[in-house]
Amino acid sequence: MNDKPCDDKRRRILDATHKLIVRNGLHGTSMSMIVKASGVPMGTIYRYFKDKETLINELHYESVQQVAHYICKDLDNNLPLRQQLEILINNIIDCNEAYPDRFLIKAILDMVPNKPADDIEFLDKTFLPVITFGLQGLEQGIFKPLPVDVLLSLGLGPLEWYFHIRKGNLQGLTPEQRTLFVQACWDALVLNPHSSEGQSS
């Protein structure tokens, strides 16, 4: 019965911190500002988070998990590789629609020491279905023989660049254009672009 109010306070602290650092930057956000924006007393905040760095890191972990939730949604590693790629691309598009400031928040949060980006085990576990997709393609001899992180950067990196640098929106693509986009990402991954391997069961 008493857990819900506590969870609500924690949520308010994290949400207020997120909004403040997007608006003011990491160093422009003070604990007193977080107190005012969240409506949670300073002493209570320190019961949840021992210091500002801990609070920011918790926000970072949560942000990574939210992104992973979107990107890995409905990604079934039993599906053909080409179909998995289509799901991944559509999920990334949806993720950027839902979290338009995610690159900004990542850039800000990456300034903190001991961040999730330094925790390889956490990232591997959080994005396991995506990594499994890459490993499957390698094990089946369909994808280019590259380290899996390099491989995924080839196939999915251009999409991330488009959103991050160009602030683009792929929702405006026609179905035919989206199919061509998926094909281009597929061609970047596969060893033999003209092969039909991995495209059907």
Automatic annotation (TrEMBL):
GO terms for molecular function: DNA binding. The keyword Repressor does not apply. Keywords: DNA-binding, Transcription, Transcription regulation. Coiled coil: none annotated. Residues 7-67 form the HTH tetR-type domain. Residues 30-49 bind DNA. PANTHER family: HTH-TYPE TRANSCRIPTIONAL REGULATOR YJDC (PTHR47506:SF1), TRANSCRIPTIONAL REGULATORY PROTEIN (PTHR47506). This is Transcriptional regulator. It comes from Beggiatoa alba B18LD.
